[in-house]
Amino acid sequence: MNKEQIISEFFKKGNLLTVDAIPIIEKDPEAFLKMKLPTIVKANDLKQEWKILRNITSKKTEITKEDFVKFYNSKYEKMRNIIVQRVPKDYVSINKLDSTRSEVHVIGIVKDIREKDSKKIIELEDTTGSIPIIFDDVEDAELDDVIAVRAIAGGKVLFGKQIIYPDIPLRQPTVGSGKGCFVSDLHLDVASVKDVEKFFEWFSKQSIPYLFVAGVTGNMAALEKYVDRYCYMKTVFVIPDDYPSIPVNFKSSKIISLGNPAMIDIGVKILLTHKADKTMLKKRYLQKTKTILEEDYLVMEDVPDIVHSGRSNDASVVNYKSVTMVSSGSMLADFRPIVIDFATRDIVKEKVK
User: Fold this and answer.
1) Phi, psi values for residue 162, rounded to 5°
2) CA geometry: angle 241, 245, 248, nearest 5 deg
3) In the sheet that 338-341 helps form, which strands lie side by side, from edge to edge?
4) 179-349 shares the fold of 88-164
5) C-alpha span between 33 and 51 (Å, rounded)
6) How far, in Å, CA of 248 to CA of 42, rounded?
7) Which fold would CATH assign to domain 88-164?
8) The architecture CATH gives domain 179-349
9) Half-sphere exposure in the Cβ direction for 129 (13 Å, CA)
């Protein structure tokens, strides 16, 4: 939005903006429009305790060949940058390889995996060409992975010695302040109303300012009603069921509607997504999809502190290199809201159903 549009949209809500408030709002007008604000909005009224780091706000309806190429080039460049920073080596472009039998390091996209004579052959492609790499085993490599390979140059082929994934660094757990409650797979279109209301009644009585909703929510209109009824003075972050997807439109000012996937910074970085596992962190790439976006937003450029996902009947908490991966199970099965104290990273699985 430009400045005139921002002023107009806030005026429709009954808000008048002071001159010092406008530059702040211009950074993320959609988020500020969802906030409860006084009639006259000053800069001091716009202090956010969170900010959006990653959010899908548009999807193409028609895909061209150029869109396809742009998407995969985006993926390759983003992943290559992560690998080069994480594993600094003297990487060689495929068109510069020779037959000297020396050790080389290359980066590329896995375009094919096949087996021959008990060996695995990966066809690796970068922006300059492609080359087959012969391995005894290819570990967790899959089609369309961007990987680094340590190999012996052999002319028209490479003899693979190691597949290198970008992975996430070892580090101390990041801490923040406050608490968050994480719920997934509410299935509001089919779940027991009694069970759902029991959860929201419980949540309304907790000193937990943030609720994070992922997985299959079902009836989004029903969610909005529960939030408006039970989540007074709380902020609710919601991603849609579809993946990848743009945000759902809500009228409630208590709901921050995000795309799927999305990442926010609330003192700790929280990634909300469709499904998640440790391999995703190892490869620095979210669950693959055939959807072509303007650029590849599924590359994990920022390392999250907490990953919240759904699509699991059982509540779970898994830690991997100081990243906490949580799912609260399903309202139709084992539903256990997970409460995380951001100041200590302590975790409690609640039983409220």
Assistant:
1) -160, 135
2) 70
3) 255-257, 235-238, 210-214, 179-184, 338-341, 346-349
4) no
5) 14
6) 28
7) OB fold (Dihydrolipoamide Acetyltransferase, E2P) (2.40.50)
8) 4-Layer Sandwich (3.60)
9) 11
Q: Is 163 exposed, middle or buried (0-12, 13-18, 19+ CB in 10 A)?
A: buried
Identity at 153, one-letter amino acid code: A
The structure's pTM equals 0.85
User: What does the alpha-carbon distance between residue 134 and residue 253 come to, in Å, rounded to a whole number?
Assistant: 56
Interval 78-136: pLDDT, tens: 999 999 999 999 999 999 998 888 999 999 999 999 999 999 999 999 999 999 999 99
Nearest to 327 by CA among 309, 352, 339: 309
What residue type is assigned to position 214 of the chain? A
DSSP string covering 179-233, please? EEEEEE---TTTS-HHHHHHHHHHHHTSS--EEEEES----HHHHHHHHHHH-TT
CA pair distance 276, 311, nearest whole angstrom? 9
**Residue 37: both structure tokens together:** 């604000």
